[in-house]
Amino acid sequence: MKDSYLGKRIRGGGYAIKGAWILLKTEPSIQVQAVISIAVCIAGFYFDITKTEWIFQVLAIGLVLSTEGLNSSIEGIADFVHPDFHSKIGYIKDVAAGAVLFAAITAVIIACFIYLPYLFPAFFS
């Protein structure tokens, strides 16, 4: 079973869970984003958002957490390869952080589309 197709998939899933747990335990930016994600989900239940709104919200949360995880990995590899300051490493890290910014801006826009009509119904009726 250990070297079977299914065994390898199960082991791979375990590594993924381990990686997600490491991110949550060690990366402050993921911790902040996880708290924001929980708060937004609580707001979703409070405002009883639609199934479609839930889909967009979950996708936005996944997008931000995923890009932040990739950014952390890229920064870790860059620091390992070249621990001292180097302009090309700085460029790589800045571009990875920029990807997180794009994801975060997208998530904020989605949140505005979902929650502003609930918060200010008079303006959206």
Automatic annotation (TrEMBL):
Keywords associated with the record: ATP-binding, Cell membrane, Kinase, Lipid biosynthesis, Lipid metabolism, Magnesium, Membrane, Metal-binding, Nucleotide-binding, Phospholipid biosynthesis, Phospholipid metabolism, Transferase, Transmembrane, Transmembrane helix
Residues holding a divalent metal cation: E27, E75
Keyword Transferase: yes
Keyword Lyase listed: no
Cofactor note text: Mn(2+), Zn(2+), Cd(2+) and Co(2+) support activity to lesser extents.
Biological processes, Gene Ontology terms: phospholipid biosynthetic process
Annotated catalytic residues: E68
Superkingdom as given in the UniProt entry: Bacteria
Main location: membrane
Residues annotated for substrate binding in this entry: E68
Cofactor(s) for this UniProt protein: Mg(2+)
Subcellular location: Cell membrane
Membrane topology: Multi-pass membrane protein
GO molecular function: ATP binding; kinase activity; metal ion binding
Family: Belongs to the bacterial diacylglycerol kinase family.
Protein name: Diacylglycerol kinase family protein
Source organism of this protein record: Gillisia hiemivivida
